Amino acid sequence: MATSIIELKEITKQYDDQLAVDHLSLSIKKGEIFGLLGPNGAGKSTTILMMLGLSEPTSGTVHVCGLNPTRHPLGVKQKVGYLPDDVGFYQHMTGLENLMYTAALNGMSREAAYKRAMHVLDQVGLVDAATKKNGKYSRGMRQRLGLADVLMKKPDVIILDEPTLGIDPEGIRELLQLIRHLNEQDGITVLLSSHQLHQVQQICDRVGIFVKGKLLAEGNIESLAKQLFFEDTFVVNVFADPIDDSLIQSIHDIHGVNRVEMNHSTMDVYCQEDVTPDIARTIIQHDRALYHINKKNYGLDEIYHRYFEGRELNEATK
Ligand code: ADP
């Protein structure tokens, strides 16, 4: 079993009369990309601040790379790179100078800082813009420079708060690819918070759905779909001819099929496991023409809407 690199046990954060995080337990494994997903005000940033030792939990325990961030904030800072949602760089300095400046503040020699800075600028695709003033960078470039800054110290974990906010689609695609690449190439564990679902879905190994300080569900997309859609995890859409009662009954009798619904001349088969081959076989055995068969998996958007618009949310936040 992979070891946990971030371990939250029953943490709460109370701000005056506002309970920002409510008994949150979460375990993030070494080497995974985890997405903390939820609307504004859910408590994502507060949770991140507690992981970094920048805010102390009201109760519960936090361990990051085996350290308690409240007691060992510097130890955590050495191992964890944090990219806030709006990175501040000196506008009048170039990308390279900005990196060299933070490296100097962290006690790195000029020579080592230059070497490392050029390497990370290359990793994030900013070598050509290294000597361009930061004020002339696009937001997407500033985010990549932020990532470069975080990578300077060779972190074990990077934590990104809403990294894709305000970036154009092409910039988002590049940034997400870059995060995935860093994860695969250097084995860096990544935690990112977002309310932009389909983007997160592209790169996260697991996501947690976070609403009003509570984690309502977590897992990979398939297991989330199972948790939220209960038994109807798969829907298989079929166009065969003719579709009659005897065919519908035979498909209904397949183990794992919950119900069959006619939708104009096609049929939707709701099932708890992927029985696409059994459905195809049954149609052929009935000597029917099979024109189309397509399995639909629930995506994160549907999962998310189900949660945020469905009764689960109302119940969980009562
Ligand atoms: P998210 O990052 O998911 O948007 P936050 O963690 O920023 O959510 O906020 C969670 C809740 O805690 C919000 O209701 C917010 O108003 C409140 N909150 C956050 N920081 C503070 C603070 N320093 N003082 C008081 N309330 C805060």
From TrEMBL:
PROSITE patterns: ABC_TRANSPORTER_2
Pfam families reported for this sequence: ABC_tran
Lineage: superkingdom: Bacteria
Keywords: ATP-binding, Nucleotide-binding, Transport
CDD domains reported for this sequence: ABC_DR_subfamily_A (cd03230)
Residue stretches making up the ABC transporter domain: 6-237
Record-level Gene Ontology MF annotations: ATP binding; ATP hydrolysis activity
Stated family: Belongs to the ABC transporter superfamily.
Protein's recorded name: ABC transporter ATP-binding protein
